[in-house]
Design goal:
By secondary structure, the chain is mainly α. It contains six helices and no strands. The protein binds heme C. Heme C binds near residues 125 and 164. Heme C (HEC) binds near residues 118, 125 and 144.
Length: about 190
């Protein structure tokens, strides 16, 4: 321990202002104790983190990503499970979905506007039910067709596709079931 005589001696700086003077006392023992404990703790933590527990932010991230992957894959699987059915009921429900979300671009009569005519025989992206479901789900964002999958869900996408297919077949005087078959030659 330092001598009592050491304490409360004034440093004697020359530029003391406002009558404030500085002592040159040693740091209190409790403070020094804490200081050393933090250093020892730091070293111990470092050794534990890297060499005993083998933790790392990369591993934590990889774990979170793997968990997300599992969850995401699970919801995706259940999303794609909704099956495309060309029933009168699906067509009727599809009509109201079309009126709500699609008329702005494809027109109430489906003859087109901002988006192409859906009643003719020309499909930019293919005319099978799979093509149509896919294009409604994924959209063509660079051309202004919205990806509807995330908005409507696969069930409603299937219904509005059924409506498009049945109206298209009606306009062309065909059997809507044709759209369910892959095009000839494939
Ligand atoms: C914001 C405008 C807009 C809205 C709303 C919109 N579409 Fe489209 N749609 C387009 C455009 C533009 C294209 C053409 C994309 C291209 O040129 O590749 C398109 C293309 C399509 C195609 C493919 C046509 C082909 O010839 O291959 C289908 C099917 C379709 N839309 C269905 C729908 C349905 C169903 C909805 C409602 C759920 C909808 N669209 C809403 C703009 C829109």
């Amino acid at each position: 321990m330092r001598q009592k005589a050491d304490r409360d001696r004034i440093l004697g700086h020359e530029n003391e202002a406002d009558g404030i003077q500085e002592y040159d006392n040693p740091l209190p023992d409790w403070w020094l104790g804490l200081f050393w404990i933090t250093i020892i703790w730091g070293v111990a933590y470092l050794v534990h983190y890297h060499f005993i527990a083998h933790r790392s932010p990369e591993a934590a991230l990889a774990q979170e990503l793997a968990a997300a992957e599992l969850r995401w894959a699970a919801t995706q699987a259940s999303e794609t499970e909704a099956e495309f059915v060309l029933s009168a009921e699906a067509v009727a429900e599809g009509e109201s979905i079309f009126q709500t979300y699609c008329v702005a671009c494809h027109g109430a009569n489906m003859l087109g506007g901002i988006g192409p005519n859906l009643l003719d025989d020309e499909w930019i992206h293919g005319g099978t039910s799979e093509d149509i479901v896919r294009i409604i789900t994924d959209g063509v964002p660079e051309k202004g067709m919205v990806p509807w999958g995330p908005v409507l869900g696969s069930d409603q996408v299937n219904r509005v596709a059924a409506y498009v297919i049945s109206r298209n077949a009606e306009a062309l005087g065909r059997d809507p079931a044709e759209a369910l078959r892959p095009p000839e030659g494939s």
